[in-house]
Amino acid sequence: MNQRQLSIFISTAETKSMTKTAHDLYMTQPAVSQTISDLEQQLNVQLFDRFKRQLHLTDAGDTLYDYAKRIIALTDEAKTTMQEYEIGTKGKLQIGASTTIGIYLLPQLAASFRSKNEQIHLNYTINNTRVIEDLILKHELDIGIVEGTVHSKDIIETHMMDDELFLICSHLHEWATKEPDAIETTDLQNESIIAREKGSGTREVVEQVLSLHKITLNNTHTLNNTEAIKKAVEANLGVTFLSKLAIQDELSDKRIIHVPLKQISFPRTLKIIYHKDKYMTPLFQSFLNHCQQFALQ
């Protein structure tokens, strides 16, 4: 029993005539008759009674008619759905983001993408860069957006946007009233530093830049949560480096203070990453393009 047989059967049941079915489906009447006969033999039941040149469904035929209509409808629905996947208007993406991006950038990015693609389902994993890279290598994520260094040669990186890390302190800290660029890198060595955990892109960038100046930090506190770090800084437990994306409200309210370092800055790149063997579906390509357009806004 196949879809062609069921379509011919449905038409015959509705027209009550093999001749009309043949005309409607551009077939010969013997071909229609043979199809119905084959179907009856396959199912070992009689599907039609024949009265006065008209065909009438038997009880078995009536039951099959209901099933056949549902099967054809489901088949058509499946074809339509697959076409939506093909053109990228339906589907699911597993998205990873490093902590800063996941908290302060991804929500707006995802919302703007979903507003144009309401049938798309997005799953999110927020963790540090090292974890996101590892999940992509394991094919557990489709795409990632990170700020840290990616180490695997199996990962493709695409520039998304530029970012910068700011040295910040509490408004209660003695640095809060210093003149711009009055703080030297050597001053950091005497400070309590609130650091991100190992594997964090933020920590890696800070350590890379300071190593060029032969500066080693005194990491008094280690936290893996940006909001917790900001609260610790506000409480004057130490100073830290955070993305400018993460501290706009606190800077505006003067709860924390940006402390420019003399002749040194901490620029970094936010990158889109994915496995080099990743099949780029239309949905994947659409999201990738959206990320790049979002960054230009």
Automatic annotation (TrEMBL):
GO terms for molecular function: DNA-binding transcription factor activity; transcription cis-regulatory region binding. The keyword Iron does not apply. Keywords: DNA-binding, Transcription, Transcription regulation. InterPro entries: LysR-like_Sec_metab, LysR_HTH_N, LysR_subst-bd, WH-like_DNA-bd_sf, WH_DNA-bd_sf. Pfam families: HTH_1, LysR_substrate. Coiled coil: none annotated. The keyword Zinc does not apply. Residues 1-58 form the HTH lysR-type domain. Belongs to the LysR transcriptional regulatory family. PANTHER family: HTH-TYPE TRANSCRIPTIONAL REGULATOR, HTH-TYPE TRANSCRIPTIONAL REGULATOR CYSL. NCBIfam families: LysR_Sec_metab (NF040786). This is HTH lysR-type domain-containing protein. It comes from Bacillus solimangrovi. The lineage of its organism: Bacteria, Bacillati, Bacillota, Bacilli, Bacillales.
